[in-house]
Write a structure and sequence with these properties.
This protein folds into 2 domains: 47 residues; 202 residues, q2cbj1_9rhob like domain (Jelly Rolls). 24% of the residues lie in helices and 27% in strands. It has 6 helices and 17 strands. The strands form 4 sheets. A 9-stranded antiparallel sheet has the order 1-2-3-14-10-17-8-7-4.
């Protein structure tokens, strides 16, 4: 026997699914539990996937709720005191100073050089990684806490973003050569793209990003947010935080951004993405 979803039960199921995902239960086991309780498998799958996706930008006005990052001017993040230099309320942007030391930046660059591969983006239809047409760069990803230095940086960033360590993707290091850029894009997985589901089933939707600058760029290479009209110039050790997923499950369209072309020299950054739920390792 299958059960149709009423409004009140939809709310109850949403709460139960969310709690199960937060506890680390797999998507498959949650769907199986719902079907065992009499819910049609297609309806159960749809309910879980809808929660994982989040709400598409522009389907309703994005509501700015309190930012999980502490409001203090100086944030004590794991092993380091980090200064907030600038805060923007809409969208939620923060510029941090001294997130990494100069020596840490240099070490991460050196560790990354032998691992770099041409950067890829996700095919919206299939979810597979493909050669990026809108992104000219090379990148590599470190496993969470892969070595002592990466562990310290992961824990520091987790504390700074006020997000559980296990919700974080591995650090992605990116090198842009002269002329390299990343055209305007969102960091979250587009909810209406069929290919997004493959990436959402482990960890759910991305909620926030921290971009850490690993070197001073000779010319160009800024991070530009078109809706607020703000651009950040890379400075070694500094970082830009932005949040795009609120507690209602909405996604902020004002966080569309671009990596501007590097005019001279190279640009090295770390991307750190946080997810709504723990990621299995």
């Amino acid at each position: 026997m299958t059960v149709a979803l009423g409004i009140s039960w939809k709310s109850s199921i949403k709460t139960w699914i969310n709690a199960s995902l937060e506890q680390g239960h797999s998507v498959e086991s949650i769907i199986e539990s719902l079907t065992d309780d009499g819910l049609d498998k297609e309806a159960a799958t749809s309910a879980v996937h809808a929660l994982l996706r989040g709400e598409m930008p522009n389907t309703s006005s994005y509501e700015y709720d309190p930012n999980p990052v502490l409001p203090d001017r100086i944030i004590h993040a794991h092993d380091r005191a980090i200064h907030a230099l600038l805060r923007v309320e809409q969208p939620q942007l923060i510029l941090f100073d001294n997130v990494l030391s100069g020596d840490e930046c240099d070490q991460i660059i050196e560790m990354s050089k032998s691992r770099l591969q041409p950067s890829a983006t996700i095919d919206p239809a299939t979810g597979l990684f493909e050669q990026a047409e809108n992104r000219a760069s090379e990148s590599c990803t470190f496993w969470l806490s892969e070595n002592p230095l990466i562990d310290v940086v992961d824990r520091r960033i987790s504390a700074l973003m006020n997000c559980p360590l296990e919700n974080g993707e591995g650090l992605q290091v990116v090198r842009y050569r002269t002329g390299g850029q990343y055209l305007h894009h969102f960091d979250f997985f587009p909810p209406n793209d069929p290919g997004s589901i493959a990436h959402l089933t482990d960890g759910g939707q991305r909620t926030a990003t921290l971009i850490v600058y690993l070197n001073d760029v000779e010319a160009g290479g800024g991070t530009s947010f078109s809706k607020p009209g703000i651009s950040f110039t890379p400075r070694k050790g500094q970082a830009v935080y932005f949040r795009y997923f609120n507690n209602l499950g909405q996604l902020d369209p004002a966080t569309e951004h671009a990596g501007l072309p590097v005019g001279a020299g190279e640009k090295w950054i770390i991307n750190k993405w946080m997810r709504r739920y723990p990621i299995s390792r």
